[in-house]
Design brief:
The complex is a heterodimer of chains A (114) and B (112).
Chain A lengths: L4 E3 L2 E4 L5 E6 L6 E7 L6 E7 L2 E4 L8 E4 L6 E5 L8 E8 L8 E2 L3 E5 L1
Parallel strand pairs in A: 2-11
Antiparallel strand pairs in A: 1-3, 3-8, 4-5, 4-9, 5-6, 7-8, 9-10, 9-11
Chain B lengths: L2 E4 L4 E4 L4 E3 L1 E4 L5 E7 L6 E6 L5 E4 L2 E4 L9 E3 L8 E9 L4 E4 L3 E6 L1
Parallel strand pairs in B: 2-12
Antiparallel strand pairs in B: 1-4, 3-9, 5-6, 5-10, 7-8, 8-9, 10-11, 10-12
Classes of the chains: A mainly beta (114), B mainly beta (112).
Chain lengths: 114, 112
């Protein structure tokens, strides 16, 4: 079974530029999560989708971050414009969505903002 | 809101030593509890879980017991190996939409 795919693995941009990250979850997984992991900290939930609907985006900085999940499958997370403090690893995870299911994580996309 | 508190690292142990990583939580209702592990250069993966009070999760020699009375889920292993060197995250899942909240992680380094 293929795992969660993310791209790009690494991205370096200057502040005020824009960046987009892509995630392809495990086939059949209804729930998709985007987490931000700053160095030395635990993952912080940015947004959670159930199929193609948003169920939690309370910690997403909506003035600069946006995310979508078209057709309830792939998802894209965008940052525009980026700030220095956005330097982090962006983790995508998916789960079957019900019944205390475990999360399956991708390898992450490491963003460096200069 | 929900939160998870882990002991700060790094934790450095000699091979075959006993490991305990403390984890306590705050949550409404009856959350499920997890330990995830992140090996160097890899993504997070589930190590073990427990879904109700007094359950014990176990995997790869690691164990953790869901203690509702102390709101804790401490990770233990009787004899660590160099290959156990990683960052360990305690997490809880709660709510109708299965929101998962992570602790800050504890880095474990095992030396030969």
């Amino acid at each position: 079974e293929a795992g969660v795919a993310q791209s790009p693995r690494y991205k370096i941009i200057e502040k005020r530029q824009s960046v987009a990250f892509w995630c392809n979850p495990i086939s059949g997984h209804a729930t998709l999560y985007w987490y931000q992991q700053i160095l030395g900290q635990g993952p912080k939930l940015l947004i959670q989708f159930q199929n193609n609907g948003v169920v939690d985006d309370s910690q997403l900085p909506k003035d600069r971050f946006s995310a979508e999940r078209l057709k309830g499958v792939d998802s894209t997370l965008k940052i525009q414009p980026a700030k220095l403090e956005d330097s982090a690893v962006y983790l995508c995870a998916s789960s079957l969505g019900t019944g205390n299911r475990e999360l399956f994580f991708g390898e992450g996309s490491r963003l460096t903002v200069l | 809101g929900n939160s998870v508190t882990q002991m700060e690292g790094p934790v450095t142990l000699s091979e075959e030593a006993f490991l305990t990583i403390n984890c306590t939580y705050t949550a409404t209702g009856y959350p499920s509890l997890f330990w995830y592990v992140q090996y160097p250069g890899e993504g997070l993966q589930l190590l073990l879980k427990a879904t109700k009070a007094d359950d014990k999760g176990s995997n790869k020699g690691f164990e953790a017991t869901y203690r509702k009375e102390t709101t804790s889920f401490h990770l233990e292993k009787g004899s660590v190996q160099v290959s156990d060197s990683a960052v360990y995250f305690c997490a809880l899942l709660s709510g109708g939409y299965q929101k998962v909240t992570f602790g800050t992680g504890t880095k474990l380094q095992v030396i030969p």
